[in-house]
Amino acid sequence: MSEPSALHDPVKIGIVSISDRASSGVYEDKGLPALQDWLTRALHNPITFESRLIPDEQEGISAALIELVNAGCCLVLTTGGTGPALRDVTPEATLAVAHKEMPGFGEQMRQISLKFVPTAILSRQVAVVRDQSLIINLPGQPKAIAETLEGLKEADGKQIVPGIFAAVPYCVDLIGGPYLETRDEVCKAFRPKSAVRATRPA
Ligand SMILES: Nc1ncnc2c1ncn2[C@@H]1O[C@H](COP(=O)(O)OP(=O)(O)OP(=O)(O)O)[C@@H](O)[C@H]1O
Ligand SMILES: Nc1nc2c(c(=O)[nH]1)N[C@H]1C(S)=C(S)[C@@H](COP(=O)(O)O)O[C@H]1N2
């Protein structure tokens, strides 16, 4: 059953796929669809997506991030370019536009990813705040998007390692963004009791 969207703040989210090969058509981009699908599943809020598919070029990545923040995205998620290869420069491009670093997100993502692949330590992903926007790097493997955002669950749905998205709504509150509300079966967001908004009347 669809819910009345007036109950939830509208939100604008930037999604950026950073890949030399996907952006030049060598292979189909699976990053943007994976980001869009996961966010649509996870959030009750009506979402407007601002998407970018760009190559691994530091200046172009920083410019895209600034453009999305200036366009009013309270959250920007990137995928790709976080490894050690010569052309992997997403963390540098993200740090170049940072007003504040948020190291907990990268630390937690590497912990989660280690449960899936031993090469998780090769991912240098960072998260930063710029103005009133939270920017988070995710790894490039399309399947890593849900893994890091959602964490690891047992077959019965019991959470083994919490995903990083659990902390995103409260972070967005703290930087003055819209009130993000998640679907618990996908991702149970955590807020201190004092920050939980009473359900609005229909
Ligand atoms: N946008 C994408 N769409 C589909 N698959 C991707 C995408 N980005 C990455 N992958 C897959 O994940 C792997 C690791 O991602 P990484 O960001 O390291 O890419 P890469 O090897 O630097 O190459 P490229 O930048 O050309 O995607 C890639 O080799 C590819 O198999
Ligand atoms: N959850 C998850 N994290 C992952 C991976 C993965 O498959 N799943 N791949 C790792 C690998 S092999 C690399 S090189 C780094 C960096 O990937 P990127 O350059 O595609 O961003 O992410 C790591 N993190």
From TrEMBL:
EC number in record: 2.7.7.75
Gene3D superfamilies named among the record's database cross-references: MoaB/Mog-like domain (3.40.980.10)
Biological or metabolic pathway of the protein: Cofactor biosynthesis; molybdopterin biosynthesis
All copies of domain MoaB/Mog, residue ranges: 14-159
Keyword Nucleotidyltransferase tagged: yes
Gene Ontology molecular function terms on file: molybdopterin adenylyltransferase activity
Keywords: Molybdenum cofactor biosynthesis, Nucleotidyltransferase, Transferase
Signal peptide start and end residues: none
Transmembrane region(s): none
CDD domains: MogA_MoaB
UniProt xrefs under InterPro entries: MoaB/Mog-like_dom_sf, MoaB/Mog_dom, MoCF_biosynth_CS, MPT_Adenylyltrnsfr/MoaC-Rel
Top-level taxon in the UniProt lineage: Bacteria
One Pfam match: MoCF_biosynth
Catalysed reaction equations from the record: molybdopterin + ATP + H(+) = adenylyl-molybdopterin + diphosphate
NCBIfam families per the UniProt record, alphabetical: molyb_syn (TIGR00177), PRK09417.1 (NF006932)
Described function: Catalyzes the adenylation of molybdopterin as part of the biosynthesis of the molybdenum-cofactor.
The name this protein goes by in its record: Molybdopterin adenylyltransferase
Taxonomic lineage from the root: Bacteria, Pseudomonadati, Pseudomonadota, Betaproteobacteria, Burkholderiales
Protein's gene: mog
